[in-house]
Amino acid sequence: MAAAGPERPRILVTRKMMPDVERRISEVFRATLNAEDLPLSKDEILAQAAQYDGILLTSFDKLGPDFIPALPPSIRIIATHSVGYDHLSIPQARAKGVAVTNTPGVLTDATADISMLLILGAARGASWGDRMVRGNTWGETTLVSPMGHDVSGKRLGILGMGRIGQAVAMRARGFGMELHYHSRKPVSGDDEHGARYHARFEDMLPHCDFLSINCASTPETRGIVNAKTISQLPDGAIVVNTARGDIVDDGDLIAALSSGKLAAAGLDVFKGEPNIDPRYRELENVFLLPHIGSATPGTRSAMGHKCIDNLEQFFRGEKPTDLLTGD
Ligand code: DGY
Q1: Among 69, 65, 22, which Cα is nearest to 49's?
Q2: Topology annotation, domain 10-106+296-315
Q3: Which residue has the CA at smallest separation from atom 6 of ligand 1?
Q4: Residue 3's pLDDT is what?
Q5: Please, which residues have CB within 8 angstroms of residue 282's CB and are 6 or more apart in sequence?
Q6: Domain 108-288 is of which CATH architecture?
Q7: Counting CB atoms within 10 angstroms of each CB, which of 56, 139, 299, 317 has the fewest?
Q8: What is the rounded distance in angstroms from the CA atom of residue 192 to the CA atom of residue 207?
Q9: For residue 274, cis peptide bond before it (omega within 30 degrees of 0)
């Protein structure tokens, strides 16, 4: 624990955290909390940043590409309350000498659970089924309608076999799914959970009754699920995404869902969220969630504590466990 006293580092916390996280960060640091949980704009964060030594922020903060270059010299570390860090430029932070840490590991299970929820919900019509019951349009059940799609025993392709991809594979095995994956490199035998590696994304696509997007958003993956790659999926495939919205080309996905090329999609993340492409709302065959992959009290608390662990290590002069700006 950092020494108590006025010399404790000053930390700006941009969003409301779990109560135990807020308690601890206030004990360890001179922390400014956001009790009202009012989103701060980039300019509002920058306007007060000179009063702080570090910032605990989230992937929901709208920062933009000029955020890090505009930071005052007082800011020595940014701890992001997320595993994804596409909202921050690591090269810019490194060049400016600002440390950046994230929260890998602690949200793996919660996020993989949501991938499975999307697979099941999109395939079996959780969204339209719920609307039927609530909207009182549940008429006579027949043997041909309403109808979803099988999950058990089907083929699942996982794009991105990091921690979350592996946890999805482990769960999907329980549904007897045949597993495939694509990532930059193959993972070790045990971590594959019986999945077959495809060095090229395109080579995996014909094997995917379901495609689960679990990779980071990078220049290489942005827009990788587009008209061309969707056309290589089997007809009637289902796409689910718990990673980042910009990995998908929305127009192309919506076209494939409208034409019937894809049977359904399950989406927890969207480009420009929460202002999603409004055409998704009109589609019957999409199951939509509001970016809740890590949204359980236990997971959000563990993420907050991981941020504090990293901040403490940094201000003790140690290398933070989850440092992204190291060599
Ligand atoms: C993450 O941790 O990256 C989640 O998507 C929440 O931002």
Answers
A1: 69
A2: Rossmann fold (3.40.50)
A3: 82
A4: 47
A5: none
A6: 3-Layer(aba) Sandwich (3.40)
A7: 317
A8: 16
A9: yes
Q: How far does residue 303's CA lie from ligand 1's centre (Å)?
A: 10
For the CA of 244, the nearest atom of ligand 1: 5
Question: What is the 163 CA–ligand 1 centroid distance (Å)?
Answer: 13
Distance 295 CA to ligand 1 centre (A): 9
The answer to whether the beta carbons of residues 122 and 265 sit under 8 Å apart is yes
Give the angle 291-119-185 at the CA atoms, nearest 5°: 85
pLDDT for the residue 5:
54
Q: Which of 102, 106, 107, 215 is the pocket-test mutation for ligand 1 (most atoms within 8 Å of CB)? A: 107
- 264 neighbors 123 (Cβ within 8 angstroms): yes
* CA dist list (Å): 304 to 24, 33, 268: 10, 13, 21
Domain range annotation of the chain: 10-106+296-315, 108-288
Q: What is the pLDDT of residue 140?
A: 85
Alpha helix ranges (H) inside 29-176: 42-49, 90-96, 108-124, 126-134, 163-173
Closest CA to 307 of 324, 325, 322: 322
Q: What positions carry a catalytic annotation?
A: 244, 273, 291
- Best residue among 15, 59, 269 to mutate for probing ligand 1's pocket (most ligand atoms within 8 Å of CB) is 59
Residues within 6 Å of ligand 1 by CB: 59, 82-84, 107, 293-294
Nearest-CA residue for atom 1 of ligand 1: 82
Residue 143 Cα to ligand 1 middle (Å): 41
Q: Where are the alpha helices (DSSP H) in 29-125?
A: 42-49, 90-96, 108-124
Chain centroid to Cα 81, Å, comes to 11
Ligand 1, atom 2, lies closest to the CA of 82
Phi-psi region of 5 (alpha: psi -120 to 50; beta: other; left: phi over 0): left
